[in-house]
Design a protein that fits this description.
Elements lengths: L14 E4 L3 H12 L4 E4 L3 H9 L4 E2 L9 E4 L3 H14 L4 E4 L5 H9 L7 E6 L20 E6 L5 H13 L3 E4 L2 H24 L6 H4 L4 H7 L6 H10 L1 H27 L10 H18 L12 E8 L4 H11 L6 E6 L5 E8 L1 H13 L3 E3 L1
C-alpha cells in the first residue's frame, strides 16, 4: 500500500531511487524534504551510506512496501539493464530514469522485451561539476527543464506520474520523443562539454606565465571541463550519432578558420591576405554572435542586453553582501552577477548586469557610497 502524498505534492511514496550519485541523491533529498518516503539502492555501500547521511532517504531493506515509482539514476551504458531489472522486480511500479541519453536506453529496453507501458524516460537538465551524494542539493532541479520521453507505449498514468515528479521537484516538464531529445542535448550539452574539454586540454603545455594571464573568458569557456571523464565517456558513447553530427559541422567551421589563418600567416600584412579570407573569419564570428542571441534569457524569455557595471570589492568577509545591499538601496534590480579575482591584488571585480536605463543612476549611487568602479 502506498503512503499518501505529502501536502501539496502529487508524487506518492514510497519512491525507490536506484543510484545514489548527484542526480539520484538530489531526487531523494528533494522528495524527503517534501515529506515523501524514499528508499535508496546503490552498488556502492559508501555512496549509499553517504546519501542516507545527507538526507536523501533510507537504504532499501527486505520487507519494504512496494514502490509506487522507481527512479533509476545510473550511467547511460547500464541504465537499460537497471530499468529492465526494476520493471521485473516491481510489477506495479512506474519506472523512469534520469539518464542524459534516451534513444539508446529505449532501444535496449525494446530489444529486451521490457514492459514499456510502465516505463517513461526522463532527463532533468540540471547538474554540477561536482559528483556524488555529497554534492546533492534539494533545489537542484528548480526552474530547470525536465524532459519527459514516453516510450510510445507508456500508459497515461505513467506519464502523469513522471510529470508530477518533475513538477514536485521544481522542474519544468517538457515532452519530447527520444530522437529529438538526443539531437537537442548533443547541440546544447554534449558538444559544449567536448569543446570545453578540448580547449582546457590545450592548457596542459601552456607556459605558467601565460596561465597567469587567464581571465574570466577562459574560466567561462573551460568551467565544465572539470566534469567526470568516466561519466562523460559513457554519455558520449551512448549518443555517438547525434554528437558526431554536430561535431562534424564544428570541424568544418574549424577547417574554414584554419584555411583563412593559413593565408593570413603567409601574408606580409592585412592588405596582402587572400581576398575573402578575413571576411570568412568575420562571418564565422558573426555566426557566433547570432547563436548566442538565440539562447533564452532570464526566466526562459527572449534574450535581452544589459548594461554591466564592474565594481572593485575588497577580498574581505561581508563586502559582496554590502555591495548587493547598496545596489538594492539604489532601487536597481540586479539581472545577473559575475565575480572575478583581480590578478595579484587582494580585491575582486564584481560585474553586475542591470537595465541599461538604470546603469548611470547605479554608477552614481555606488560612487557616492564609496565604491570604486572599473570604467
Amino acid at each position: 500500500m502506498t503512503s499518501p502524498a505529502a501536502g501539496g505534492v502529487a508524487t506518492r511514496g514510497p519512491v525507490r531511487v536506484v543510484g545514489a550519485g548527484l542526480l539520484g541523491a538530489s531526487v531523494g533529498l528533494a522528495l524527503t524534504t517534501r515529506g515523501v518516503e524514499v528508499t535508496l539502492s546503490d552498488p556502492s555501500r559508501t555512496a549509499l551510506a553517504l546519501a542516507r547521511d545527507v538526507g536523501a532517504g533510507r537504504p532499501a531493506a527486505p520487507g519494504d512496501a512496494e514502490p509506487a515509482l522507481v527512479v533509476v539514476a545510473a550511467p547511460p551504458d547500464v541504465t537499460a539493464d537497471v530499468v529492465a531489472a526494476e520493471l521485473a522486480a516491481h510489477p506495479e511500479a512506474v519506472v523512469t530514469d534520469v539518464a542524459s541519453v534516451k534513444g539508446y536506453v529505449l532501444r535496449e529496453l525494446r530489444a529486451a522485451g521490457a514492459d514499456l507501458t510502465r516505463y517513461v524516460g526522463s532527463h532533468p537538465m540540471a547538474g554540477r561539476e561536482r559528483t556524488g551524494p555529497a554534492a546533492a542539493l534539494p533545489d537542484l532541479f528548480v526552474g530547470r527543464p525536465w524532459v519527459v520521453v514516453g516510450s510510445g507505449e507508456s500508459r497515461p498514468d505513467a506519464l502523469l506520474a513522471v510529470r508530477a515528479l518533475a513538477t514536485d521537484l521544481g522542474g519544468v516538464p517538457v515532452a519530447m520523443d527520444a530522437d529529438a531529445h538526443d539531437a537537442a542535448v548533443a547541440a546544447v550539452s554534449h558538444v559544449p562539454q567536448v569543446a570545453a574539454s578540448l580547449v582546457a586540454a590545450r592548457l596542459r603545455d601552456a607556459d605558467p606565465d601565460a596561465l597567469g594571464l587567464a581571465g574570466q573568458g577562459l574560466r567561462d569557456v573551460t568551467r565544465i571541463a572539470a566534469s567526470d571523464p568516466a561519466l562523460w565517456t559513457s554519455i558520449l558513447a551512448a549518443n555517438a550519432g547525434a554528437v558526431r553530427a554536430v561535431l562534424a559541422g564544428l570541424r568544418d567551421d574549424l577547417d574554414e578558420v584554419l584555411a583563412a589563418l593559413d593565408g593570413a600567416a603567409r601574408a606580409s600584412g592585412p592588405e596582402d591576405v587572400e581576398l575573402g579570407a578575413l571576411a570568412r573569419i568575420a562571418r564565422l564570428l558573426a555566426d557566433g554572435n547570432a547563436g548566442v542571441g538565440l539562447v533564452p534569457g532570464k526566466h526562459g524569455g527572449a534574450p535581452r542586453r544589459y548594461a554591466v557595471t564592474t565594481v572593485l570589492v575588497p577580498d574581505q568577509p561581508g563586502e559582496i553582501a554590502r555591495l548587493l545591499t547598496d545596489v538594492g538601496a539604489a532601487g536597481v534590480n540586479l539581472e545577473d552577477l559575475q565575480l572575478e579575482h583581480a590578478a595579484g591584488r587582494p580585491v575582486g571585480m564584481v560585474s553586475v548586469s542591470v537595465d541599461p536605463a538604470r546603469s548611470a543612476h547605479l554608477e552614481a549611487e555606488l560612487t557616492a557610497r564609496g565604491w570604486r568602479l572599473v570604467l
